[in-house]
Every structure is written in C-alpha cells, then in structure tokens.
Model the fold of this input.
Amino acid sequence: MERCRCCGGVLEKVLDFGRMPLADRFVTPDEVADEYFFDLTVGMCTGCAMVQLINVPEPELIFRSDYPYRSSGSIRMAEHFAATARTLAARELTGQDPFVVELGSNDGVMLRVLAEEGIRHLGVEPSAGLVELSARRGVRSVAAFFDHDLALRIRADHGRANLIYAANTMCHIADIGSVLSGIDALLTDDGALVFEDPYLGDILRGTAFDQIYDEHVFYFTLRSAQRMLAPHGLEVSHVEPLDVHGGELRYTVTRRGRRPVDTTVTSLLAAEDDAELTDPAALASFRRRVEETRERLPTLLRELRSAGRRVVGYGATAKSATVTNYCGITPELIEFVCDSTPAKQGRLTPGAHLPVVAPETFSAHYPDHAVLFAWNHATEIIGNESAFAAGGGQWIVYVPEVRMIAG
Ligand code: SAH
Ligand code: TYD
Ligand code: ZN
Done:
C-alpha cells in the first residue's frame, strides 16, 4: 500500500500514464539505449486529500549539474520574478539587515534583483551548473538540496531568515517533511515562507495533464497545503492566484497565530469545497478528458501528415514529455521541436526522441503547423513569431482541448 508523503494516509490511485522518462533529460543518440523510465501514476490521499505522484525517481537523477531548465528563458517570467522580488522586499524585508533564502533559485532570476539592492541572501540550488551561472550574476547560492540538515547549517552560518521563498520548487521535493521542519528551524518568529506552485484547480479546469511529470511530486490545493503545514506549526495567512505557468497559487505562510488569516484564505477554501477539489470524482472526470486528448491530438497530427503538411513542435518543455510519450507522438508526426535553450538543442526529447533545434530553424523555413508545447508562454511566443501565422502557419494547442488557433 502506498502512503501519503504529508500525513502517512493511504493513497488512492487516480491516474496512470504508464512508463515515462525523466522530463528534463534530453538525450544524445548514444544515451537512448539506457534511458531511464518509471511508472507515472498519481494518487490522492484518503486522509489529507493531497494529490501526489505515487513513484518518484531519486532527485539526484533529475537535478544534476546539467539540469537544463533556465528560469530566465522567458522574458515574461523574468519580469514576473523581478516584480516578485520588489513586492517581497517591500512586504517582508523591511527590518534591519534582513536575510532571505530562496529554495530552487535556479539561474538567480529572482535573487539578482535583491542582490543588486544589497540585501543579504542565499540561494539553495542542487544544480552546480546553475549555482555557477548565478554567481556570475552576483547571486550567492549553495549547490545542495534543501532539507532539515541544510537548514540547520544555514542557520549556524547566517542566522535565521526573515523570508524563505520558493517558486515551482516546493512541489518538486518528495521529502516535504524534512523541508518543512527545516523551514521551521530557519525562519524567524515573525518571518514568512512564500511559495508558489501550479494549482490543482487550474490543472483540472484546463485539462493541463502535461503538468504531471516526474518533477511535479505534489499538486497542491489550499486545503491540502494547509493540512501539510499544520503539523509544523505553520499556516497560510494569505493566498493569491498567479497568471503564470497555466495558473498558480502564491501562499504566504507564517507561524500559527502570528498574523491574521485574511479573507483571501477563507474565501478560496469555500470555493475549493464548492468545486469538490478534495473529491476523487474530480480526478475521474479529468481523466476522461485527458483520454479524449490522447485520442484527438495524434489523430489530428496523422491527418495533417497524410495530407502532406509539415508539422513541428514549439518549446521543448518538461511538460511536453508527458504529451509526446502518453499520446504516442513520434518523429513521423512531428519533424522537430524548436527551443531557445542551448543545452536542449542538438539532443532528442526524452522518450519520444524528437530532435530539438534552435528557433532559427523554425523561422528559416516555416512549417504548416506548430504544436505549441510551451502553451503557458503563448503570448510571448506567438508575438515573437508573428510572421509564422502572417504567412498562413497555424498553431495547434491541446490545452484545454485540441484545436488550431489563429496567430
Ligand atoms: N524557482 C525557479 C526554478 C524552478 S525549477 C522558477 O520558478 O523558475 C525547480 C528548481 O528546484 C530547479 O532549479 C531544481 O534544481 C531545484 N530543486 C530541486 N530540488 C530541490 C531542493 N531539495 N532544494 C532546493 N532546490 C531544489
Ligand atoms: P516552461 O514551459 O517554462 O517549463 P517546463 O519545461 O517546466 O514545462 O518551458 C518553456 C520552454 O520553452 C523552455 O525550454 C524555453 C522555451 N521557450 C522558447 O523556446 N522560446 C520562447 O520564446 C519561450 C518563452 C520559451
Ligand atoms: Zn495525506
């Protein structure tokens, strides 16, 4: 029997995607023979309703020094994190000599703004390559996985943190108990943990099944997050929706009783109860819609190919690993995927083995159709590539359902 990582309750299996590769492991032809696969299945806890992966590959396999994801790869996201840095500085870092710790600081996209203000900071980022890149931007970070032991070391070296921030990282860490007890040890009495992650409500509403892959261990709701935090003496005192990565929630978490729990929390809890987000039935209807997409997307691509059309992919996202592998999309259906990340170019996408090329290959000779795998960056990409649609090209999206859109 599988157990919940938050409360130890029993996990009920709600989704099964079959064998999947690691979504950010772009392979060379030599590496194809021993590519790593695991069973991508999702469970809901019968105790705390946390939706989570049942099997999680070892984090050391995923977050290596060559982990290719770059937070600064989207201008919109770089702006989002710069704005976040300014908001957090004004809200949480107003005392004397404040100290901020960021978990999953990646290429330093957020901390560089605070570093420029002279604010004491430390990023925690397991990928050594990213730690080096951040250092070149004036961001100090440590190449390590955050857990309780590391929290104690940081506290001994730097003192307690007024703010701990984590974007798209809390949901990545299976050993969440150690992370939360570490946060409890590291945070000042009046400090805040601010974290933001994809919201289960948006994933279900948008049929965004491609948010489900090896790195996304948890699919939070406010209710399940609250239950996860409570045993550590922490509570959500404020919550706000974010219009990035397909819909996220930003949680401001403080020690129990230290700040008033405001109406953003009480009203979202009521909305979640109305939407029955803690009911396995919500996942069952999601599963039916996902199965429809699994039929429709490859059917559309096969029709286009047999009509002699050229079809490519845009954005070699981690999310696309679930789409291509679950929907059986092969290089016969999609000629290549273009992506601006140099570390992905010249390699093959995980599992499906679609060649990854630079965006210049796309614009040099526009195809007839492009599947927008980076649909969460639609405005930025469709805007930058406006000549594609102007010349008659069509974008294909599959979230919330399979359709062609005008540019
Ligand atoms: N915060 C960035 C990066 C998100 S990707 C953004 O929102 O764009 C998730 C990051 O978390 C990766 O850079 C990964 O290396 C890092 N990570 C994974 N496990 C971690 C852990 N235990 N502690 C700190 N960072 C971790
Ligand atoms: P993203 O959707 O942010 O995340 P994930 O990999 O977790 O699903 O990834 C966006 C990818 O799209 C990234 O590899 C960079 C690429 N990209 C482009 O190639 N061009 C662009 O204009 C943008 C915004 C992103
Ligand atoms: Zn649970």
In short: Residues 280-306 form the longest helix (27 residues). The chain has 14 helices and 17 strands. Residues 4, 6-7, 9, 45, 47-48, 50 surround zinc ion (ligand 3) (CB under 6 Å). The CA atoms of residues 84 and 336 lie 35 Å apart.
